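Sorry, explain these tokens?

***
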Amino acid sequence: MPRSESPLRSDLFPEISPYASGMLAVDGRHTLYWEQSGNPDGVPVLFLHGGPGAGSAPVHRRFFDPQFYRIVVFDQRGCGRSMPLGELHDNTTGDLVADMEKLRTHLGVEQWLLFGGSWGSTLALAYGLKYPARVTGFILRGIFLGARSEIDWFLHGMRAIFPEAWRDFVEHLPEAERGDLLGVGVHAEDLVAEIGHAGGVHGTQVAGADHGHAHRGHSSTMQY
């Protein structure tokens, strides 16, 4: 199939629209957005976005040959078009793995290929460990195993290389909170009074997710 001639992302397949989409309630709190595009009878492939918290985008459909693949894309708990946006309660790696299996069952997929990078690679591997019989293979890049050393490097050590990006990442937080960046979002209730975010607890969490997403983008290239 001919590739897109756009000067941007010219190495990807042409833009396509989903042939099906919907919302899947996975528990009493969370509802996930999902979509399918490409060939309904093709090889199922599940795209796993990064983050946690990044969400999916139309460009992610273009990573796959739509004549060959049945392309499944979804937004993980608290991300993108899934509801409620920015929700951290009942939002663990185990919850996300269980969501993937519920989505597979909902869509009637017997087995699928898992495609992910960064946090998406972590989630793909976690799912593969739990449900190996449901996985035909992995396509992974920027593999992140979630080890404490990796987390510490991303949250703190990265500032040695990208000091400006790290400053932008943390400057919206009280200085006393910057030593526990991983726990800040969980304790957003305690931060609302300190930083006075107009959106309250939810707005504080979403703002933190926005800063985290920008930091991931800066730290994944050699430019700022």
